[in-house]
């Protein structure tokens, strides 16, 4: 997906605090080392005999902690708490799910909290949802000090109200295991600070801020793959006010939304156009948190962009990455009629970049800004800029070139 990340769109969110899971079981991190676990003790709210909490720090991936399921089932939430016996500067944790082929107890929504005395706990340094698979999830947060580390599991990753939690191995990371925690001085608050790390269960390729202040992210038909997919999209909803992330696979619109155009319509719905299933439009309604199919575009598109114009309609242009190459003139969507209408006069030719890969890349990700009287300013990535008029059959007027600037994408 790296090629996608160069896109310029007002809707793409560059959120530095978001750290997706890293599925690298034996990763070496230049900024962190696992703290040796010798002498640590571990407690949990519950365990099944034979699956004691100590299994989570025994260095043996074949053994695991599992909450009680027989003769009685212990309900969520669950926690497991490490005592590292002295305070360290810490900056991350890694969680290896059980490796025996089972998935019961894989942790979904969770928080990581820290303490220096085992009594007073930090607000979460990390929260979110882990993906339901057996890869090790390593996440990092700002340097802080801790002797005690607590993972609280709020859901089980397979869902369906499963009550269990399990962990094969748990590690805590430090930027320098040899530094005494008393040497730690937090950076001055005048320089700002990073908030909690938000864990997403997908590798997000796109995201949009909803009218309710939540952020919808999505990847493609798989959490971490976009090639050759179709028919569905994995999404995650981050609700900052409750510090939660929920995962949802959207199948009902039969739409792989990898690399689409994204706009909020006049009703506050997030309109997602094209992408891998390149004629489809899907609409996210933040009030119901529901996805629904909207009218199909006239022209199939992927890697296009879109913008909501003054009267609330959604204009899109370009997008030869998917659904055939070339001729991707503009069209416009009306929420009132749920229909797309061609704008044959809103031609794509004047906004093409001189891309080495031709029109396949040359019409990607126009920088579109709505202006008064339903006009749209196209500021790039081509050196040439244009005014698009989306009234009637559509038209355009050249707006000159960006001074001393070349095509921003080539
Ligand atoms: C790891 O645990 C498994 C299951 O209890 C056991 O068979 C194996 O011998 C252990 N490995 C080591 C190196 O202790
Ligand atoms: C975290 O702490 C380490 C060790 O003191 C330091 O080298 C590193 O710069 C710190 N990182 C940040 C982001 O402050
Ligand atoms: C979405 O696109 C796929 C693939 O082109 C197609 O099979 C499906 O019918 C479309 N879904 C809708 C709701 O139009
Ligand atoms: C846009 O096009 C319409 C005709 O389709 C025209 O009446 C209108 O004046 C144009 N707007 C601008 C700002 O040029
Ligand atoms: C409709 C469409 O363009 N689907 C594409 C999805 O992505 C795969 C891999 O890039 C293409 O092979 C499909 O054609």
From TrEMBL:
Name of the protein in its database record: F5/8 type C domain-containing protein
Q: Which UniProt keywords apply?
A: Signal
Fetch the Pfam families from UniProt. F5_F8_type_C, Kelch_1
Instruction: Enumerate the InterPro entries for this protein.
Output: FA58C, Gal_Oxase/kelch_b-propeller, Gal_Oxidase_central_sf, Galactose-bd-like_sf, Kelch_1
List the SUPFAM superfamilies hit by this protein, alphabetically.
Galactose oxidase, central domain, Galactose-binding domain-like
Domain of life of the organism encoding this protein: Eukaryota
Q: Which SMART domains match?
A: Kelch
């Amino acid at each position: 997906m790296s090629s996608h990340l160069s896109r310029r769109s007002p809707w793409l969110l560059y959120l530095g605090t978001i750290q997706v899971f890293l599925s690298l079981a034996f990763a070496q991190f230049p900024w962190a080392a696992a703290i040796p676990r010798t002498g640590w003790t571990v407690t949990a709210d519950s365990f099944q005999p034979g699956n004691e909490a100590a299994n989570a720090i025994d260095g043996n991936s074949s053994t695991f902690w599992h909450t009680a399921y027989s003769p009685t089932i212990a309900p969520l939430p669950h926690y497991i708490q490490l005592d590292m016996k002295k305070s360290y500067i810490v900056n991350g944790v890694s969680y290896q799910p059980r490796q025996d082929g089972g998935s019961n107890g894989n942790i979904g929504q969770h928080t990581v909290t820290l303490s220096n005395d085992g009594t007073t706990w930090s607000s979460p340094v990390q929260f979110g949802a882990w993906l339901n698979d057996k890869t090790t999830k390593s996440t990092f947060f700002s340097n802080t000090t801790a002797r005690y580390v607590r993972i609280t599991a709020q859901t089980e990753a397979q869902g369906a109200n499963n009550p269990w939690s399990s962990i094969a191995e748990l590690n805590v990371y430090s930027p320098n295991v040899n530094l005494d925690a008393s040497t730690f001085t937090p950076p001055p608050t005048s320089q700002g600070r990073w908030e909690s790390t938000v864990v997403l269960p997908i590798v997000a390729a796109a995201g949009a801020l909803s009218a309710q202040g939540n952020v919808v992210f999505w990847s493609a038909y798989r959490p971490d793959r976009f090639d050759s997919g179709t028919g569905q999209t994995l999404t995650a909803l981050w609700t900052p006010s409750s510090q939660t992330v929920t995962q949802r696979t959207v199948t009902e619109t039969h739409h792989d939304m990898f690399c689409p155009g994204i706009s909020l319509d006049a009703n506050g719905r997030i309109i997602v156009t094209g992408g891998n299933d390149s004629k489809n439009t899907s609409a996210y309604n933040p009030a119901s948190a529901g996805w629904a199919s909207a009218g199909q575009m006239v022209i199939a598109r992927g890697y296009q962009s879109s913008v909501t114009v003054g009267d609330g309609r959604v204009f899109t242009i370009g997008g030869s990455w998917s659904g055939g190459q070339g001729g991707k003139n503009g069209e416009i969507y009306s929420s009132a009629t749920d229909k797309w209408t061609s704008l044959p006069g809103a031609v794509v030719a004047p906004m093409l970049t001189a891309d080495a890969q031709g029109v396949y890349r040359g019409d990607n990700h126009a920088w579109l800004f709505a202006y008064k009287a339903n006009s749209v300013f196209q500021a790039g990535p081509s050196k040439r800029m244009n005014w698009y008029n989306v009234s009637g059959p559509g038209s355009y007027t050249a707006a000159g070139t960006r001074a001393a600037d070349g095509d921003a994408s080539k």
